[in-house]
Design a protein that fits this description.
heterodimer, A: alpha+beta, Alpha-Beta Plaits, 8-stranded antiparallel sheet, 2 helices, 27% helix, elongated, disordered C terminus, B: alpha/beta, Rossmann fold, 7-stranded parallel sheet, 8 helices, 7 strands, globular
């Protein structure tokens, strides 16, 4: 199910939180980031979200998996953070129809940095990108925003 | 060894359905189960979730097993069958895969015999209309090849959205088992579990 306007992008973020956050606040921050990514993609031309998924891990190793498939940015999460934490690691994978890869990359990266910067110091690692069904290339590029 | 192919478009809930049913399937059948999971993205988020949920997963990330990773898939299936001797192998391709291509690929499989293959198609009831309009031919191919069609996310879908899936299946003249379920809320997952292992 591939068309010319399909693209996929993945990014990893590590956040040193400004203050310790409880599980509800951590979940809320992650879900707000996911909704922001989805809505920004739609605003820029995504007409069908394959999925925008993330797995987020707090300092004690507990985690939530979050997914957006609807154009209204509704987030579905499973798992749970068990305790308050001063760090958060997030891996995000966005597959969508409508945006070319360079635009998708820019939109997702900007939304992730913007939203996670609200809660702490963010380190970004681009862990890969794929833009067609017949091949892929991974790019490892560490960017330190500290 | 039997194989269950769990296919469906991106975001249809394949992994959630598998996670919601695998314990029941093991309890129902007492079979040794293996899962081969293919994520299209460079990061296998679903496979990480499965591992964190206590499963051991053979992961095929960064590509699609119906095309670029076809040979890798056959090698992985052979290795899993030879080393772990499962009774039942679940194969979850990426949501971009064409299940017909995977079945065609199986003609080149030389490992321990696969006695039976069952194809489960997971459909996102909420987005069925949107996806069908965007890519009608692939959606039709999926529905036609499925032995069972699971209409997922019924907890969020309207009656009209659920009926649109039913009508589409009927319009194609397909006599398939249709199961309404919510993998996330675990509604009717027992019915799905039994359908996955039905003889």
């Amino acid at each position: 199910m591939i068309s010319e306007d399909f693209s996929a992008y993945a990014i990893k973020a590590d956040v040193s939180l400004r203050t310790r956050m409880d599980p509800a606040a951590l979940t809320s921050a992650v879900e707000k980031m996911m909704t922001t990514i989805a809505l920004r993609c739609v605003a820029n031309g995504t007409y069908l979200i394959g999925h925008i998924k993330s797995i987020s891990e707090s300092g004690d190793g507990s985690w939530i998996a979050s997914s957006v498939t609807d154009l209204d940015g509704k987030v579905r999460s499973s798992g749970a953070f068990n305790s308050s934490s001063d760090r958060l690691g997030v891996v995000i994978n966005a597959l969508q129809y409508g945006l070319k890869l360079d635009r998708l990359e820019a939109v997702v990266k900007e939304a992730v940095i913007e939203q996670l910067s609200l809660i702490g110091k963010v380190g970004i690692e681009e862990i890969g990108e794929e833009h067609d069904h017949k091949g892929s290339h991974d790019r490892f590029c560490k960017i330190d925003l500290g | 060894m039997e194989m269950v192919l769990i296919s469906g478009f991106l975001g249809s809930g394949k992994t959630t359905m598998l996670l919601s049913t695998v314990d029941q399937i093991i309890a129902l059948t007492n079979k040794k189960v293996a899962i081969i999971k293919n994520d299209f993205g460079s990061v296998g988020i679903d496979a990480k979730v499965m591992e964190k949920s206590g499963l051991q997963v053979a992961e095929l990330p960064s590509g699609c097993i119906c095309c670029t990773l076809g040979i890798d898939f056959l090698k992985t299936l052979t290795a899993v069958a030879t080393e772990f001797h499962p009774d039942l192998v679940f194969v979850e391709p990426s949501g971009l895969a064409d299940p017909a291509s995977i079945l065609a690929l199986m003609k080149g499989y030389k490992g321990p015999k696969v006695e039976k293959t069952r194809v489960m198609i997971i459909v996102d009831a909420v987005r069925f209309n949107l996806i069908s309009r965007a890519m009608p031919a692939p959606m039709e191919r999926q529905l036609k090849i499925g032995d069972v069609i699971v209409i997922n996310k019924i907890d969020e879908a309207t009656e009209q959205q659920i009926d649109e899936v039913r009508q589409a299946v009927r319009a194609m003249g397909l006599e398939k088992q249709l199961i309404m379920a919510s993998a996330l809320r675990r509604e009717n997952v027992d019915v799905v579990a039994r359908a996955m292992v039905a003889s």
